[in-house]
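User: quick one, sequence for these tokens?
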């Protein structure tokens, strides 16, 4: 079964359980047999180890000091070798199966989480910290891997060693066997005591590690801002503060671990010493044979020290249990229902959009973001949104691809209620060019074809790049369309990244466009190039334009001016320019600024022209 098929048939939500051990058992779906086999192999290995000590007992009691038993010696030696070989082989086989199970289970969990996180709602991602999510998908999943490969299998090994060795001790001498487990209740109680406390401490440690990851991730993402404002010292202090917090929580965590060892060592060492003394006294008194004592001495070591390690493993399993809980916190989040909807057109949409008394508020906020939004847009028309920051422009256009669902009112697309369309279909019909486009660390070709979902010919790619006025720029690179784009497209200028994003949208050929302030962060020359590319992109498509510059919206069929989530003005550029209101104020301010700027440029050019026209008078050479 390949990874994609396995992921399609595996549902991690089935592992949700109040009992975390039961949940971990459910995660092992498909690999339980191999894990059970690994434990059975350990049990057989433990049986062969016990048989070695029983053979030692026979050797000491029936062979040593008896000349007539000399012919048996080769068989005794062969028995020791065979038992050791079987034990080693089964131990190796068990470890391999446990590792196979652990690696495959956690590989599947990581794949599931990666897919699951991508399918969570925008509301979830707006609240979740990136570093926290990375920590849970990497560090916490790795803690689960250790649980399966080391801790759980270790507990199984100790169980079999105790069961088989204690049975052998009972066979040797019941009194010695009972004396050898007097410390068992104390060890178990101590282990459970530490387990409960270590669980809470480790959870706090993991949370602090996630905070540290978030600080690091944000710093690396915003390294240009850090350098531009010379805030390296501030960022260093912030990181050191969180790192110190991790140190304190880690110190407490490992101190609790280290506190367990002296207690368990003293108890288990005392138990073993008492067992040796009582066994020696019984051997001297003739109650047991010398061979029985030698076998007992070997068996009791493999009874007591595994008990000591049981306590350690019980404490360490808390890390796997905590990490499982942290992973399941993500899993229990509901995915965005991409395919839910009872209306699916046979072809593309036309693009007739009607908003009627639409209201919207975010799930975790009672205040309204949009109130009573009403307007109509015919197919192929352009609607511009203008307003101050926080006025609701982006929230409005985010309703179209159903990144969020409106709380009241109605939005219809081609006469059908928007909520009846599946999100997946809507997003296939909508292209978005953002203010700061994101480019992946792949080739330019892969970035342009990213949103298509089909095989695209080189001719199509080049046609889209030409329409976006980026083709000639791409060919100027040594590797052309195979040029690797650095993280977030750092090898390209702002205008070049924007035009690659436009080409990516063009090749998708959407019926509805959303241009989110696509020219706000570039210079005038680049803006003109991008606007030319956008005009090519907008032809025949219903377009929503978010902008702050009047020049970017004045050709729109309908302009909506928003303020505090309400439409305060709407109409064409000519209509709004003649009305008293926000639009006219913005228009006059921007027009005045542009006029003053042109005048200053003109005045700055005139003296240079005059100086160029004046003849240069020759000056006498001074010696």
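Assistant:
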């Amino acid at each position: 079964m390949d990874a994609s098929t396995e992921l399609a048939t595996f549902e991690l939500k089935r592992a949700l359980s109040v009992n975390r051990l039961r949940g971990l058992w459910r995660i092992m779906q498909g690999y339980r047999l191999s894990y059970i086999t690994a434990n059975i192999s350990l049990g057989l290995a433990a049986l062969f180890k016990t048989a070695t000590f029983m053979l030692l007992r026979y050797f000491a009691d029936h062979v040593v000091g008896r000349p007539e038993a000399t012919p048996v010696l080769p068989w005794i030696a062969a028995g020791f070798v065979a038992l050791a070989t079987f034990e080693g082989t089964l131990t190796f086989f068990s470890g391999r199966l446990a590792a196979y199970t652990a690696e495959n289970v956690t590989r599947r969990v990581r794949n599931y989480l990666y897919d699951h996180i991508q399918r969570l709602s925008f509301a979830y991602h707006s609240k979740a910290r990136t570093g926290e999510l990375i920590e849970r998908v990497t560090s916490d999943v790795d803690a689960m891997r250790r649980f399966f490969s080391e801790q759980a299998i270790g507990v199984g090994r100790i169980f079999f060693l105790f069961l088989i060795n204690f049975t052998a001790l009972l066979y040797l001498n019941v009194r010695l066997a009972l004396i050898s487990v007097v410390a068992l209740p104390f060890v178990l109680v101590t282990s459970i005591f530490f387990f409960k406390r270590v669980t809470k401490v480790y959870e706090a440690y993991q949370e602090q590690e996630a905070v540290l990851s978030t600080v690091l991730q944000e710093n690396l993402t915003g390294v240009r801002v850090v350098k531009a404002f010379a805030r390296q010292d501030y960022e260093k202090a912030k990181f050191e503060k969180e790192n110190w917090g991790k140190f304190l929580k880690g110190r407490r965590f490992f101190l609790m671990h280290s506190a367990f060892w002296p207690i368990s060592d003293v108890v288990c060492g005392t138990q073993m010493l008492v067992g040796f003394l009582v066994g020696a006294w019984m051997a001297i008194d003739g109650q047991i044979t010398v061979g029985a004592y030698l076998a007992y001495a070997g068996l009791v070591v493999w009874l007591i020290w595994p008990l000591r390690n049981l306590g350690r493993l019980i404490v360490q399993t808390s890390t796997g249990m905590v990490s499982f809980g942290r992973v399941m916190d993500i899993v229990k989040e509901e995915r965005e229902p991409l395919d839910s909807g009872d209306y699916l057109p046979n072809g593309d949409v036309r693009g007739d959009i009607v908003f009627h008394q639409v209201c919207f508020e975010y799930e975790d906020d009672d205040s309204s973001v949009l109130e009573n939004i009403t307007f109509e847009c015919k197919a192929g028309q352009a609607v511009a949104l203008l307003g101050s920051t926080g006025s609701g422009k982006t929230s409005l256009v985010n309703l179209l691809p159903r990144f969020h669902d409106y709380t009241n009112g109605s939005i219809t697309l081609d006469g059908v209620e928007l909520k009846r369309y599946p999100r997946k279909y809507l997003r296939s019909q909508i292209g978005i060019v953002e203010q700061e486009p994101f480019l992946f660390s792949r080739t330019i070709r892969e970035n342009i074809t990213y949103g298509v979902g089909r095989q695209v010919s080189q001719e199509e790619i080049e046609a889209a790049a030409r329409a976006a006025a980026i083709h000639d720029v791409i060919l100027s690179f040594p590797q052309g369309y195979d040029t690797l784009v650095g993280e977030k497209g750092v090898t390209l200028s702002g205008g070049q990244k924007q035009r690659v994003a436009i080409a990516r949208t063009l090749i998708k050929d959407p019926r509805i466009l959303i241009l989110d302030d696509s020219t706000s962060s570039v210079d005038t020359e680049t803006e003109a190039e991008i606007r030319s590319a956008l005009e090519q992109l907008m032809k025949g498509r219903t377009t929503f334009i978010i902008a702050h510059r009047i020049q970017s919206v004045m050709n729109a069929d309908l302009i909506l001016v928003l303020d505090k989530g309400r439409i305060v003005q709407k109409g064409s550029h000519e209509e709004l320019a003649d009305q008293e209101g926000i639009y006219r104020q913005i228009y006059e301010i921007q027009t005045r600024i542009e006029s003053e700027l042109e005048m200053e440029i003109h005045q700055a050019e005139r003296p240079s022209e005059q100086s160029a026209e004046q003849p240069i008078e020759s000056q006498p050479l001074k010696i």
